[in-house]
Amino acid sequence: MEEMEEELKCPVCGSFYREPIILPCSHNLCQACARNILVQTPESESPQSRRASGSGVSDYDYLDMDKMSLYSEADSGYGSYAGFASAPTTPCQKSPNGVRVFPPAMPPPAAHLSASLAPVPRNSCITCPQCHRSLILDDRGLRGFPKNRVLEGVIDRYQQSKAAALKCQLCEKAPKEATVMCEQCDVFYCDPCRLRCHPPRGPLAKHRLVPPAQGRVSRRLSPRKISTCTDHELENHSMYCVQCKMPVCYQCLEEGKHSSHEVKALGAMWKLHKSQLSQALNGLSDRAKEAKEFLVQLRNMVQQIQENSVEFEACLVAQCDALIDALNRRKAQLLSRVNKEHEHKLKVVRDQISHCTVKLRQTTGLMEYCLEVIKENDPSGFLQISDALIRRVHMTEDQWGKGTLTPRMTTDFDLNLDNTPLLQSIHQLDFVQMKPSSPVPAAPLLQLEDCCTHNNSATLSWKQPPLSTVMAEGYILELDDGNGGQFREVYVGKETMCTVDGLHFNSTYSARVKAFNKTGVSQYSKTLVLQTSEVAWFAFDPGSAHSDIIFSNDNLTVTCSSYDDRVVLGKTGFSKGVHYWELTVDRYDNHPDPAFGVACIDVLKDMMLGKDDKAWAMYVDNNRSWFMHNNSHTNRTEGGITKGATVGVLLDLNRKTLTFSINEDQQGPIAFENMEGLFFPAVSLNRNVQVTLHTGLPVPDFYSSRASIA
């Protein structure tokens, strides 16, 4: 029955109803609380004035909300719903149960007077604190509202059923245990509230205070008041008006407004309405039973969610631990490769150190022996051995000149770990299976008219199907390796067009794309086959060149503003295939040494090409040429350049060689071998030289004939 307690409490004071009355809107109020929230209205709004003007049709006239707005804080001093006026300086406040009500329109009567006996101000208005409907009282005031005797009886039975100690009815927050009850006020008090609200002086001194238990008994033994007619207070209800839906007395039927209405016996209607209420309660009981079963289901779901969460977290941790273990195993494998490379480099360098040490010891011994021979004064004896010694010295010198003083191994580790696909996969790791009911996007459509290749770059475009209703959050573009190998991701994002650079020349690539959202990944689009250019068309790159380089002729012609050598690269890099380009010498003054060749993207730009280990070049003057890499000069070859000469560079990455030519004739032997990596065409020159680049050329005849013989 504790769940019913809120139904038994007044919305104004928050306590159990005391002498409850029924408003026309069917809500209840304590009679004292109803009097406290009365508001006095202007004379023109009274029922008498309305009846005089012919506009009144009922004893209770409801006010429209726009009329109620006339009583603003500026006009009458009354604000919107607030509560009892407990102090003159606060026009409104909140009631204990949170409902906002109007303050009294005039000072309340003495506490010992009954609320029903207190005079009601003329032209008073009352507003229901629950539905906010307002009405103007007639001359009867609050006596015109019927009293809810049934609600009083329910409250009495409820209070009698509670075995707990009686609580104080005036405590504002947590009610304390009552210590006394006033029989005249019919109120239970705790000691603080009794001293504050019921002092033993004045008229209150004559009230009889009894223990709470005795007060409960006296309440229980008090006779139930019989419901009387609101229009004829001395008459009991005897009939029921069907049209007005209210009990009436016999005088109402004879001379009142119910005389022409249909009436029925009070007992018969009582039984009928009890039966209707019971039937309505049956349906509500079924709903309450369903609600209880639903609550049990929800509580079981809470337990199941907790269990599933623990299980899912354990599964997630196990999956992540498996990924970490796999990454650690791969890490160990990669470290093993690094260690092998480390040992290999050390072995090569140490072997070269040992070899050079032995040769240096032999050279030093030969030098000391020759110096001792020179000291001899015997001409005939000297001439007998001098020719042999001179040949040995020259042979030893030649042995030192054939790359002996060039390191066979670089200090850099040519290992580049490509972790981009793995990082992308980690970023894409998500619970896409959490929403299986949502569909995945449709497979994208490749826009063939927008897909193309240029040199070693490929541009692809795609879109969602026109009738697709599932939005894609992004796309994944995949290409194979140009040899029919496995596909790899080259783009992940929201764009529908992508250009892939750095492909191999003269290669056939397959491309496909798929869409994804939070639910999952779509099917692949149709596979598109792309062919890169057989030969490369490119120009010099101003973006990576030294600032002293001067460009012209659409970046095909370059010179320099400095007397020092400066490096400029081509825009296209090569890692596969056979590529040939030429450079025409447009200006050549004062015997400079321009250099031609290839270089890595990070080559030094402020020195001659080939001075560092990032470039492989041939530098040439007007008489001869040399090959140079890492500042090592080799293979001096007769034949130089003049104005109008043509220098050819042939990079064969299939055979891993680099060859040079001057005026269509091969210059020296194969310049460099074991060429692996990404190489850019490169030139170094100063202000005395100007060259023009020619690209897209076929392989020269001297190389084609040699390749056919091989």
From TrEMBL:
Predominant place of localization: other
Keywords: Cell projection, Coiled coil, Cytoplasm, Cytoplasmic vesicle, Cytoskeleton, Metal-binding, Phosphoprotein, Repeat, Synapse, Transferase, Ubl conjugation, Ubl conjugation pathway, Zinc, Zinc-finger
Annotated PROSITE patterns: B302_SPRY, COS, FN3, ZF_BBOX, ZF_RING_1, ZF_RING_2
Protein's cellular compartments: Cell projection, Dendrite; Cytoplasm, Cytoskeleton; Cytoplasmic vesicle, Secretory vesicle, Synaptic vesicle
Enzyme Commission number: 2.3.2.27
Domain Fibronectin type-III stretches: 440-535
Gene name per UniProt: TRIM9
Pathway: Protein modification; protein ubiquitination
Domain COS: 374-432
Ranges for domain RING-type: 10-50
InterPro entries: B30.2/SPRY, B30.2/SPRY_sf, Bbox_C, ConA-like_dom_sf, COS_domain, E3_ligase_FN3/SPRY, FN3_dom, FN3_sf
GO cellular component annotations of the record: cytoskeleton; dendrite; synaptic vesicle
Domain B30.2/SPRY: 517-702
Pfam families: ANCHR-like_BBOX (PF22586), fn3 (PF00041), SPRY (PF00622), zf-B_box (PF00643), zf-RING_UBOX (PF13445)
Source organism (scientific name): Vombatus ursinus
PANTHER family: E3 UBIQUITIN-PROTEIN LIGASE TRIM36-RELATED, E3 UBIQUITIN-PROTEIN LIGASE TRIM9
Protein name per its UniProtKB record: E3 ubiquitin-protein ligase TRIM9
